[in-house]
Amino acid sequence: MQHIVLIEDNPSDVYLMNLALAESGLVFEMTNYPNGADALLALCPPAGAPHPPLVPDLILLDLNTPCSDGFEVLARIRGNAVLSHVPVAIFTSSSSTDDKHRAALGGATAYIKKPTQLKAFLDGVGIAVKQLLGETRSEIRS
């Protein structure tokens, strides 16, 4: 089972992400944080915290999160020794070249623009996530 962290404040996008992954056949557990601050508390807890940090298989990060900018969250994740190996995909409505460039410089593994059409969202996002989790192309197409 794959553990995915989704940092997303829009309930509709959270619902669609769950639906897209379920329809892709991926066996997963998803933890959603509606803002960057809550996600960072779970992913990068302060020293001496009572719980160990959450180490997922994949982090999907919206750039426009309340409380912490997505680029700030990405920087904190990439600066954390425990999480530095975890793939982080920016999952956003922004098609800005500057945002894509900044995400790449910040260490994002992928940049996924949120599709506006339902079928494209369900098909494309599921395939992209399976690829990020290391599934082979033959498994993705079947």
Indicate the topology.
Layout (H helix, E strand, L loop, with lengths): L1 E6 L3 H13 L4 E6 L2 H8 L14 E4 L8 H9 L9 E5 L4 H9 L4 E4 L4 H15 L4 H5 L1
Parallel strand pairs: 1-2, 1-3, 3-4, 4-5
Key terms:
6 helices, alpha/beta, five-stranded parallel beta sheet, 142 residues, globular, disordered C terminus, 18% strand
Strand order of the largest sheet: 2-1-3-4-5
For the secondary structure, the number of strands is 5
What is the number of helices? 6
Helix/strand structural class: alpha/beta
N- to C-terminal distance: 19 Å
Shape call:
globular
Q: Overall mean pLDDT score?
A: 87
User: Could you tell me the radius of gyration in angstroms?
Assistant: 14 Å
Q: Give the helix proportion (percent range).
A: 40-55%
Strand content: 15-25%
In this structure, how is the largest beta sheet organized? 5 strands, parallel
Uncertain segments of ≥5 residues (pLDDT<50)?
136-142
Spell out the helices and strands N to C: EHEHEHEHEHH
Could you give a quick summary of the protein structure above?
With 142 residues, the protein is of the alpha/beta class. The protein contains 6 helices and 5 strands; from the N terminus they run βαβαβαβαβαα.
